[in-house]
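Purpose: get a first structural picture of the assembly so the mutagenesis plan has something to point at.
Setup: two entries, given in the order below. No constraints added.
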Amino acid sequence: GENVEQHPSTLSVQEGDSAVIKCTYSDSASNYFPWYKQELGKRPQLIIDIRSNVGEKKDQRIAVTLNKTAKHFSLHITETQPEDSAVYFCATNTDKLIFGTGTRLQVFP
Amino acid sequence: EPEVTQTPSHQVTQMGQEVILRCVPISNHLYFYWYRQILGQKVEFLVSFYNNEISEKSEIFDDQFSVERPDGSNFTLKIRSTKLEDSAMYFCASSEAFADQETQYFGPGTRLLVL
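Result (structure tokens, whole complex):
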């Protein structure tokens, strides 16, 4: 079955710095790659997604890149703010979501 | 903006008891899912459901689990005889279509504690 690996497991940055989270997947049939943000005790919230027909997508301070050949995709957050602190999950969707193991991002003021 | 809702938000039960977790998917969505998240771990797929039948289930979804769409709005997950290891957050999700590029929207979750 599909396997999604995510790194790093924890990431601490200073406010204003950039944060990058990377994921690799195994199923070459995967065509949709969402990223979810989960605050403590809350539901996963979709923050950005990318489909396999594009290599990059940006939404304000958040961007995602996809390399289908290498089977990896990354989340980039620029100008981080304390409210970006949360656990971030990458996922692939081949009719069900397969999540990565999560990255706990802490942004220090 | 329409949202997936779930009840109860918290459930405490004794081992061996049956629990029913309830979800109301977004109204025009046709595909429904249950996921679980053990504390501190990743979200794991349990089951997908469409047209009143299970589309796919994971190895976690054994004979103790069942799902049902009892009416036009609710979608339920039943655990027949709860075990300690069933303690987790259970999320319902729904999507408009069943495709590998379809966004799934999550409910707020039910935190289940089995004692």
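DSSP finds no helices and eleven strands in chain B.
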